[in-house]
C-alpha cells in the first residue's frame, strides 16, 4: 500500500514539474579544450587522470591530493577544467566528486579500467 502511495506522489510531482525536469542544461560555450561535468549539487569535483598521476595518488601511496585536478564551478552548476596544454596522446580520466565518488564522463562513450573503476578515455591531438 505504501509503495502505491509513494509511486502516486512521485507521478504527481513529475506531472506538475513539467517537461523541463527532463531537459538537460545546455553545456556552456567556451574556447579551447575543456572537460565539463554538470553536477550542481557537488561541493567539489576533481579530474583524476593519467596526466596528473590520478590526483597525485600514484606518488603518494594511494592518497588523492584534494587540490590536484580541481575543477571550477560556474553559476549553472557546470564544473570545468582547461586541458588545452596537454601533450598529444591517449589518456584515461574520471571525475572525483565530493572526495569519494568516481564518475566516468557521461558524454564520452569511450571507457577503460583503472584500479577497478570504469573511467573515460580521451585522445588529445596537437
CATH class: Mainly Beta
- Second CATH tier, the architecture: Sandwich
Helix/strand-derived category reads mainly beta
Strand content: 25-35%
Q: Which residues sit in consecutive blocks of at least 5 with pLDDT less than 50?
A: 4-31
Indicate the percent of residues in helices: 10-25%
Q: CATH fold name, please? A: Immunoglobulin-like
Q: Provide the succession of SSEs.
A: HEEEEEEEE
Number of domains: 1
Largest sheet: 5 strands, antiparallel
Question: Can you describe what's shown?
Answer:
The chain has 126 residues and is mainly beta. The protein has one domain (33-124): Sandwich (Immunoglobulin-like). The chain is 13% helix and 33% strand. The protein contains 1 helix and 8 strands; from the N terminus they run αββββββββ. The protein has one helix at 2-17, and strands at 34-38, 45-49, 72-73, 78-82, 89-97, 101-103, 111-114, 117-124. Strands 2, 5, 6, 7 and 8 form a 5-stranded antiparallel β-sheet that branches. The longest helix has 16 residues, at 2-17. The protein is globular, with a radius of gyration of 18 Å. The model is unreliable at 4-31 (pLDDT under 50).
